[in-house]
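**User:** I keep going back and forth on a fold encoding question. It is easy to fool oneself when nobody else works the same problem. Could you pick a protein and write out its sequence and tokenised fold? Could you put it straight underneath, so I can go through it closely?

**Assistant:**
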Amino acid sequence: MLKKVFCIFLIICLTLTPILSVGAYEPTGIEITAKSAMLVSLDTDEILFEKNADEKAYPAAITKIMTALLILENDKYDPKAKIAMTEEALDLISGTGSSVSLMKAGQEITQLDLVYMVLMSSYGDCTLLAAIHYGGSVENFVKMMNDRAKKLGLKGTHYENPIGLHSEQNYTTARDTYILTKEALKNETFKEVCESTRYTVKSINRVLSTTNYLQDNTTEYFYTYAKGVKAGYTDESGRCLVSTASYNGYNYMCIVFGCPADTKNNFTESRELYRWAFNNFGFKKVADTENPVAEVEVALSLDTDYLSLYVEESFVSVLPKNADDSTISIVPHPTDNVVKAPIKKGQVLGTADIIYAEKKIGTVNLISNENIERSLMLTVVYGVKQFFTSSYMKVLYIIIAIIVVVFIVSVIRLNKKNSKKRKIKYIPYDQNENKKR
């Protein structure tokens, strides 16, 4: 009866949320020309849209996200300290076709200025200056970039140079770029720099402007909710953009690689994806810690025979605003169908898959919300039972059975042998033979 009541209650409470969505939706009324793209909720890590997210892409200046992150993480970085342009950096950038700052050898700027010139204005000479200063050499700095990528788990990324100059060995993916950029945005200086639209380098009397037109209200691509991060372009990579946007408590990151070179689709398509997300999706609390979602049998306790399992934490998911609760369900996977006491409050006893519209959108932990004590008497009985039903005892039983069988067979054989010895041979009496004597 208890199980039937629980099942009815469970059906009523079919709500839960994903930790990380692995699904994606199809935007309506938007043509995505980008070769690869992603739109991800920064609040929940849920993917709202993806296209070839794991396909190799040439990142162009998007490479400088990693470059800037390594500058800011470096022990040598001091925002107020001065750094001078070098002949080495100017020689290395010459003939590459990269944008340059027009600084002369010996001119000084602060290290914070340098970060702005690398990340905001994307100057190649400043990027090489940074690589030499913080890495000892460009080659070593590139090694640092690849080591950091490996540490972040970027399996589809490899760097050949810190600028983003085209190379078959300088590549990444949209998914890796999301991981990298989210890590970089944890750095407050990085966040401040990439979200700025203008910056003045006082020592050389230069006003820098962002290359992300979504942020620049002087362009036709301006989007008031955009907040960074980096644009890039080469003939081979096409138009690329990594950006974020925030509105009404919702935060998204959009990544597009490989938009046609003769367009500005990296800006327009990112903007349209943001609009689609803000208009069609919302937060939905689909799990709480107050309602049970599964039940398991309890052994070795006199307190209770069954234990209800609860979601470890409340979760919120980004779902279509018209999402129906009936399309959300939970499939529990208890670690065991029978759980032995003692059980501690908060103990993880399984997981549950969260299903929306017949697709798995996340996994959550299931826990006990109470302490259950172990019964000494039941434990002793259980121990005795386990002892006599253990594998070792089963082997012992087999050995004893074999010994008994051998003994019985031996006894039977021995009895037969002794029986033959006790038999007397009968000789018929011959009267004639006796007379002759």
Notes: The chain has a mean pLDDT of 89. DSSP finds twelve helices and 17 strands in the chain.
